Amino acid sequence: MNNLLPTSAGWTIIALLLGAAFTSMAILGFEKLSRFAVVCSPWMLAVFVAGALAVLPQLGVRSDFSNLWEVASTRIWNGEASPGQEKFGVWHIMFFAWFCNLAMHIGLSDMALFRFARHWKYGLLSACGMYPGHMLAWICSGVMVAAIGREMNPGLMAIEAAGMAGGAAVMIAGWTTANPTLYRAGLAFQSITPNWSRWKTTALAGVATTLLACLPARSQGLRNAAYLL
């Protein structure tokens, strides 16, 4: 999985199919992306929570949750770094969380989305994605990673915890990030190629990212897809 060039035809085919799907959704425009997010976002959150609850017995949590805190502090978030990994403090986590979503913060994704809002209070909805979405999803991920021996592999983690639904949730989580990003990239390219239509610039961005996804070392998303096959 760390090879620079593709090692199999299957890998390349998956990359091309997913890239075509992502790009097609982005070309369809903001309205279609919004409908996709409305359907998939609550479902993804439910799968993450269900996956975390499903693996709690594997970690030794009793059915009445009486020892949940003990297990959480000794087996899940015990403050000990995995072998070969550096121990993270609170500042590491804070800055990692920021830089992990740097494209959203510096790229002003909310500004790109909320320009269509009918009221300023709609901006407060960002918290609904940050806290129930990202924060709760990361907590649930911590539980699931602990259950598979702290191996940092999202695809394996999701499959072990929630089966095919878990693997699909991880894939769609990447999809929901890729689609608005491709949509905004198309708009950005259009500003420097004013004679091109938006769909052409979005297609250009999609082709470029799809070709990069064909390189195993550059694509975590395809590693997750591999566990679905």
Walk me through this protein's architecture:
The protein has one domain (9-80, 87-226). Helix content is 70%, strand content 0%. The chain has 229 residues and is mainly α. Mean pLDDT is 76; it is low at 221-229. It is globular.
Main sheet characteristics: none
Cα separation of the termini: 15 Å
Secondary structure tally, helices: 10
Radius of gyration: 19 Å
Helix content: 55-70%
Element-by-element helix/strand order? HHHHHHHHHH
The total of beta strands comes to 0
Q: Give the overall average pLDDT.
A: 76
What is the SS-derived class? Answer: mainly alpha
Globally, the shape reads: globular
Fraction of residues in β-strands: under 5%
- Unreliable segments of 5+ consecutive residues: 221-229
Question: How many discrete domains?
Answer: 1
In short:
This protein is mainly α. It is 70% helix and 0% strand. It has one domain.
List keywords for this structure.
229 residues; 10 helices; globular; disordered C terminus
